[in-house]
Design brief:
The complex is a heterotrimer. Chain A is 46% helix and 7% strand. By secondary structure, chain A is mainly alpha-helical. Chain A has a domain at 61-146: Cytochrome c-like domain (Cytochrome Bc1 Complex, Chain D, domain 2, Orthogonal Bundle), CATH 1.10.760.10. The radius of gyration of chain A is 18 Å and the shape is globular. The two termini of chain A are 31 Å apart. The model of chain A is unreliable at 1-20 (pLDDT under 50). Chain B is of the alpha+beta class. Chain B folds into two domains: 1-34, no CATH class; 35-151, SoxY domain (Immunoglobulin-like), CATH 2.60.40. Helices cover 20% and strands 35% of the residues of chain B. Chain B is built from four helices and nine strands. In chain B, strands 1, 3, 5, 6, 8 and 9 form a six-stranded mixed sheet that branches. In chain B, a hairpin with a 4-residue loop joins strand 8 (129-137) and strand 9. The longest helix of chain B is centred in the first third of the chain and has 12 residues, at 39-50. Chain C contains no helices and eight strands. Chain C has strands at 6-8, 12-13, 18-24, 47-54, 57-64, 73-79, 84-92, 97-106. In chain C, the strands form two sheets. Chain C has a five-stranded mixed sheet, with no helix packed on it. The radius of gyration of chain C is 16 Å and the shape is elongated. Classes of the chains: A mainly alpha, B alpha+beta, C mainly beta. The interface between B and C is medium-sized, with 30 and 28 residues. Strand 6 (104-110) of chain B pairs antiparallel with strand 5 (57-64) of chain C, so a sheet runs across the interface.
């Protein structure tokens, strides 16, 4: 019930469009204190929240600008830009951030926003795919997510083998790994809000990605965060766009269902 | 956080001093370190900027988080009590820190047309330390403000 | 690939108003104390100077050191005196200068 209410609150905000960030953030905050599902935003100190809520203070927007510029830039042998087919991103991409990953019948895998962009570049634009974690791919991902800010996350498991992939992600989540022998659940399910050394643990929700981490001093993808987390528990990280991380991303979207898309956010 | 390890602050030391104790260790427990600022070098660096003027405490407010979420990006707002008129304004603001590799952080030059002596930016703090701002007024007087910021060690050493 | 600077200045103001200006620019602010994987020091490259002028007269300038965080952000004020143009310039250790302008109508 609480989740449903939150979804309604978030949906109501969409009407305000991009300029309503402060209101959006207030709603995320409110949703987070009244629901069991909490965005990382609700764990942040006020200075970091303020940085996220103002589009000029939020350094992610340097990448959103890169994405917006690329949107209209012709690239590849087909002589097309994103805009040639998709027109105004604010109209055509508004539901992308909240519904991805989706099933890709060609690869028989879930496909996240990053992989979707590169598939489009390769197949439709006949352009070189962007490197994972490049400014261009981060920028385009951030731009596409930014036009869907405030929309409640709803990733469908109906198509293809999405259900099975989400299950795989769930197994990953509860699997102990690394020298510290920790699973995702030990920190993010059993201890959100508690301190690990001097740092507050969050639920590890994905609705804010890509995110500008104060630590990274740049925008970074969800898979970069997964890799960092795996490294920290002294486990071998998987590759960007790997099956393991796609499964985890699909599963985490279920755990964070109805949280509003915040991307690109600011996190510690 | 490898640099911390290099400086002799191991996991065990941190685990021993749980909670707030850990903050104190993170700030003070380092004995061997590479060349870096100290309260003395920070004061010297300020004095160089101020050219011999004697500084009084007051009129300068530094807004920084008590505990930075991450030392690599720490928001700071400096406010100086001044009418900012042609006859009475803040000419310059020098910001230094006493625990970074170098003491200087940033220096501002203002004109009366800035209208208000309030500036926000973001700085890096390599460990728990004091941030000091000195404002040079148009009449040559100098005022300072200081704020300590705690910089802690993140989760699993990340 | 790096983005253009972001600058926010109100489009209109009344004479005498104190307006808020915010700027954000993409820059790594390489400190000069970090080492690469082979142990070689990565040379310092930071934005070392920022200037904001209005109709050619300096409002505020800053001298930056490596302790300024990556992607420098500034928020400060200016008194609206007449209609005109704010000019912003950021210069880095490589000798590169990036500029931006914003017009304001003062009535």
């Amino acid at each position: 019930m609480k989740r449903t209410l939150m979804g309604v609150a978030a949906a109501g905000l969409m009407a305000f469009g991009l300029s309503a960030t402060a209101a959006e953030m207030k709603a995320i905050d409110k949703a987070s204190t009244t629901s069991a599902v909490r965005s990382g935003f609700s764990y942040a100190i006020s200075e970091t929240r303020e940085m996220q809520t103002d589009d000029i203070q939020n350094p992610s927007f340097l990448w959103v600008d890169i994405g917006e510029e690329q949107w209209g830039t012709v690239d590849g042998e087909a002589g097309k830009s994103c805009e040639s087919c998709h027109g105004n991103a604010a109209d055509t991409m508004a539901n992308v951030g909240s519904t991805y990953p989706v099933w890709d019948p060609a690869t028989k895998k879930p496909m996240n926003v990053e992989l979707r962009i590169n598939k489009c570049r390769a197949e439709n634009m006949k352009a070189k795919p962007w490197k994972y974690e490049s400014d261009e791919l981060l920028g385009m991902t951030a731009y596409i997510k930014s036009v869907g800010r405030g929309k409640p996350i709803h990733v469908s498991l109906k198509d293809g083998d999405m259900e099975a992939w989400s299950k795989k992600g769930e197994q990953f989540y509860y699997q102990r790994r690394g020298l510290l022998d920790l699973s995702c659940a030990h920190c993010h399910e059993q201890n959100p809000g508690n301190l690990i050394r001097a740092e507050t643990l969050s639920q590890g929700q994905t609705n804010g990605f890509p995110t500008y981490r104060l630590k990274w001093q740049k925008l970074g993808s969800l898979h970069r965060r997964f890799r960092g987390c795996n490294n920290n528990i002294r486990a071998e990280p998987y590759a960007y766009g790997s099956d393991e991380y796609l499964a985890l991303e699909t599963y985490l979207a279920q755990r964070g269902a109805n949280l509003p898309v915040e991307g690109p956010s600011v996190r510690k | 956080m490898r640099t911390k390890d290099k400086n002799g602050l191991g996991r065990r030391a941190v685990l021993k001093g749980a909670g707030l104790g850990a903050l104190a260790v993170a700030g003070a427990g380092l004995t061997v370190r590479e060349a870096q600022a100290t309260p003395e070098t920070a004061a010297k660096s300020l004095a160089k900027h101020l050219g011999g003027a004697t500084a009084k405490e007051g009129k300068v407010d530094l807004k920084l988080p008590e505990i930075a979420e991450n030392g690599r990006t720490v928001p700071v707002t400096i406010t100086v009590d001044s009418p900012m008129t042609d006859g009475d304004y803040v000419k310059a603001i020098h910001v230094v820190a006493d625990g970074n590799p170098t003491p200087e952080m940033i220096s501002f030059v203002l004109s009366p047309n800035a209208g208000k002596a309030e500036i926000a930016t973001r700085v890096r703090l390599s460990k728990t330390q004091n941030v000091i701002a000195a404002a040079v007024m148009s009449d040559g007087s100098v005022y300072t403000g200081t704020k300590q910021v705690k910089v802690t060690i993140g989760g699993c050493g990340g | 690939m790096s983005a253009k600077p972001r600058v926010k200045v109100p489009k209109k103001a009344a004479k005498g108003d104190i307006i808020q200006i915010k700027t954000l620019i993409s820059h790594k602010m390489e400190t000069g104390t970090r080492k690469d994987k082979n142990g070689n020091v990565i040379p310092r490259n930071i934005i070392n100077k920022f200037v904001c002028s209005f109709n050619g007269t300096e409002i505020l300038s800053a001298e930056l050191f490596p302790s300024v965080a990556a992607n420098p952000y500034f928020a400060f004020s200016a008194r609206a005196t007449e209609s005109g143009t704010f000019e912003f310039a950021w210069s880095d250790d490589d000798g590169k200068t990036v500029t931006a302008t914003e017009k304001i109508t003062v009535s």
